[in-house]
Amino acid sequence: MDYSPSFSKVNINEVKWVDSMRKSILKQHDDEDIGQIPVCVFTVPKLLLATDPKSYIPQQVALGPFHHFRPELYDMQAYKLASARRTQKQMNVSFECIVKTMKEHDETRIRARYHKYLDMSGDTLVWMMAIDMAFLLEFLLMYFMKQSYHLVDLTWKKLPHMAILRDLVMVENQIPMFLIKKMLQYQQLQQLQETDVNQSPEETLKRMLMGLYHEFSPFHEQNHLANVDIDKCDHILDFLYHMTVPNDHEQHINVPTNQNECDQAKEPCDEGDQQESVPEPTTDLRQCMSFIFTILSKSNTVKKIIFGKLFEFVKKLPILKLVTEHMFKKEKSNDGSGGATKAPTIEEITIPSVTEMVKAGIHFSPVNGGISDIRFDVKACTLYLPVVELDVNTEVYLRNLVAYEACVAPRQLVVARYTELMNGIIDTSEDAKYLRERGIVLNYLKSDKEVADLWNGMSKSVKMTKVDNLDNVVKDVNKTYGRTWRVKLSRCLKTYVFASWKILTLLAALFMLLVTTIQAFCTVYSCARYFHQLPKIPGAEEGKLA
Fold first, then answer.
1. With contact defined as beta carbons under 8 Å apart, do 202 and 232 qualify?
2. Could you read off the pLDDT of 452-465 as tens digits, one per residue?
3. Most exposed among 2, 77, 173, 348, judged by the fewest C-beta atoms under 10 Å?
4. Of 423, 451, 480, at which residue does a domain stop?
């Protein structure tokens, strides 16, 4: 008997399945509660996961249920159990009592927080979470203690610290923050009491996460980010996201704070500051054009040719677009309508590379801050970018922030827009080298080419949204870049000359053929009598008398 593919390839335990369905139906009130609890731990969108799976899938340690039973990660279970045993000694309640309380009061809430259905028993889930939290808090403790903790010396030096650090920030490897705070409340660590007796668990956890942020974040000196409310954060990655992107996201402009910025702001822009004016035609040119038009108007045949099919053909040439665009430029600019809610167009995303901007006279200057500190000074022709430190952790950090941002879907995808901006201005190793020499990129990778590859590899995003501050920066840069004479000449030749070279060649050949024909005609027949019949050029006689 042949089975359909949907059943033949799946090994189903029917008894377990029926029991699971029966329990789910009986727990209807739990499902109603789950529907009111927002999801905070998501799976990575497939489009992003396909670009670089290692940046999103834990490689060393699994936290939470999504990757817990992967065989290649289960070797860490011995370290987790060791952390749980040490934690047990430092608590005034038994570990089993904590697990029992967690199952009675938090199991439904835990399941609701995860995007995927957790096909495991309640006991399995709460024991897993309790052991993982003990491991996680012991790891974070090194960012809190003022002096080296002996457990860190004995345990963490034997483990690949950076690999664990990268796994902690992955989207699918998160533990809800309310569980971490509860576990921290149970722990009565003697070391914590000696350091800060009156410090609350929330303050302790925040200090841990602040230490984690300062070690892991590629950005420097963001003072306003210390005000992130940890009670409003869903998990560690959510805390790091709010540290990177302020909640209000009111894009502000900072005045230059270091001497380098002030000096750079004083330098005038070399090119493109002044709008080019179109000169008015001279009197002689007007007289010449009027004379030619008068000659052509005398012949009906010529008028039919010039203003008939030939005119319809010639006016379609790309070279004539320059005139029509200039004539109707003001009218088109006044018809612009607001589209703040729409996705940015390709023109709003495209930005010249660093090398191209430098050739056009645009300068770069570093600022100590974050994404919201990016700005462009039109008068000084200077683009201010935050100092970013690139190492082996940076790509994982930024990729998971972009993925989490896409899952949460805020009004503005700020981190994704920032990565697109950096991808736009860094095309080659020369671009990366210039930013490194300016102090904007602190390169701890092997080469400038790796820096360029890092940004160019993060070009895929789930979707694009407008981010007011960054969109204005791109707009101002493109406007200033487009006003330089080099760019104007290049675009003019490319658009209006090179695009029409075949037609222009044909017209030149026809013109030469016409001249040759006229010359041959005048050789055989006398053309002087025809020229005597032409109207005289105004002012010609006065010139002779003078």
1. no
2. 999 988 866 667 77
3. 2
4. 480
